[in-house]
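<goal> How does this chain fold?
<sample>
Here is the protein in question

***
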Amino acid sequence: MLNRRNLIVLGSGVSVATLLYGCGDTTSNTAQAQATPEGDTGAAEGEVALYDGSPVEPIDNQPINNPDGLPDRPLGGVNATVTVIEYVSPTCPHCATFHNTVLPRIKETYIDTGRIRFITRPFRRNVLDLAVLMVAEASGTAYHEVLSAYMATQNQWATADNPRQAIFQVAQQFGFTQERFEEVLTDEAMFAALESMREQALNQFGLQGTPTFFINGQRLETGATFESLSAAIDAQL
């Protein structure tokens, strides 16, 4: 069982078996999702084409739009001229606040209308982050829905006496069996991909905490409020 000593920021270079000690000991692997060229819903003529949560190819050659490890799963407009990237850690209280109070307004105003392309990019800080992010990634196009469920219940699973079981209980709501859950938590390829994404964020983009936002490649230096984000987005529209 995980204890409070596990809730530390872990460095790189450890194996998945070591990092997920107490989070499952099975040995089955799952396949990584493959990126698709567009990942949109196939909008009819005259309608705004929106992403459906599928992994996509990078939109251009800018380093910030070319994540290491896993392809992005955007929401919003396929043809949007503004790209907002959020680096998120599921155990981060500030991330939960953003997802629970600010993101719904951003979604209504900018994402669902196709005005922006919104990318939630994983950044693991500890073993619980890793478990949640692996479950979310393994959920396919339900990635954002699963992540939102964990953000909404962060105070329950992150502080539970048995957080591994609490994380599984949320996963069950999305059709995960115990066997599937164990397979995901021991997926070496996914672990390596998430570590690669983490190292890129630290070493190439200078990430210092979460949530961190980039708007068309520019780091948002103000707080993660609706007002600050909307002002930065509107300046690019």
